[in-house]
Design goal:
Distance between the termini: 65 Å
Number of helices: 5
Strand content: 15-25%
Number of strands: 7
Order of helices and strands: HEEEEEEEHHHH
Number of domains: 2
Length: 191
C-alpha cells in the first residue's frame, strides 16, 4: 500500500482552515465561546534584511480577530520573536509576520476580506457588517479604505480621477467607493 510521505494536518487544523497555521490547542470557555491556539508553520524572515532565522528569542500569545467559525471564537497566535543573524542588519530581533496576519496587524486577512465582501455583496453598511462579525466599525472602515486603495493601484478609477465612469470600472468598485464616502461622512469624518 502506498502512503503519502508529506506532513499530515490534524483534524482541528483542517477544520479551522487558516492558511499557514496549525491548531495547537482548543478550549471551550464557560459561555460557549471557543479559544483556539494556533502557531505559524512558515519560516520567519527579518523585515529589515530578509534573512531567514531559526534562532528563537522568545514567544508570546497574541489575540487575533478572525471570522466566526460555527460561532464566536477567540484566536490566540503563539507568535515567535527571532534573533536576526545578519551582522549588518540594524534589527537585532524581529517578530514573525505571515500573509494572513501581517506585521502590526491584529486581524486575519480572511476576516478583512469577509468584511469587504459583506459590505459590497450584501449591501450592508459598515456598521451592520461590524455588528454581524463582532468587530469595531473602525476595522470595517479600514478594510474598505484599504480595498479602495488597492483598486486604485490596480488601475480602477475612483471618483475624482479623469477616467472615473469608464468601462474598466466595476460595480463592486463603485459600491465600495460610495460606501466608504457615505460611512466616513455619516460618522463626522472630514472627506
Amino acid at each position: 500500500m502506498i502512503e503519502p510521505t508529506g506532513a499530515r494536518s490534524d483534524a482541528a487544523t483542517i477544520i479551522f482552515n487558516l492558511p499557514d497555521y496549525r491548531v495547537i490547542g482548543v478550549d471551550v470557555l464557560a459561555f460557549g465561546q471557543r479559544r483556539i491556539r494556533v502557531e505559524s508553520v512558515l519560516e520567519a524572515g527579518c523585515r529589515g534584511c530578509g534573512t531567514i532565522s531559526h534562532r528563537r528569542h522568545s514567544r508570546r500569545f497574541q489575540r487575533v480577530r478572525d471570522v466566526l467559525v460555527a460561532g464566536p471564537v477567540e484566536v490566540l497566535w503563539r507568535k515567535r520573536r527571532f534573533f536576526c543573524d545578519e551582522s549588518e542588519c540594524p534589527r537585532k530581533t524581529f517578530a514573525e509576520a505571515t500573509p494572513q496576519v501581517p506585521a502590526f496587524s491584529r486581524s486575519t486577512a480572511r476576516l478583512r476580506t469577509a468584511l469587504v465582501d459583506a459590505v459590497i455583496r450584501s449591501g450592508r453598511s459598515a456598521t451592520e457588517a461590524a455588528t454581524a462579525f463582532g468587530v469595531s466599525w473602525w476595522l470595517v472602515q479600514r478594510a474598505l479604505n484599504t480595498a479602495v486603495l488597492e483598486l486604485s493601484e490596480r488601475g480602477h478609477a475612483v471618483p475624482g480621477d479623469a477616467g472615473f465612469g469608464s468601462s474598466k470600472d466595476t460595480d463592486a468598485a463603485d459600491v465600495l467607493w460610495e460606501t466608504c464616502i457615505y460611512e466616513m461622512s455619516s460618522s463626522g469624518m472630514k472627506i
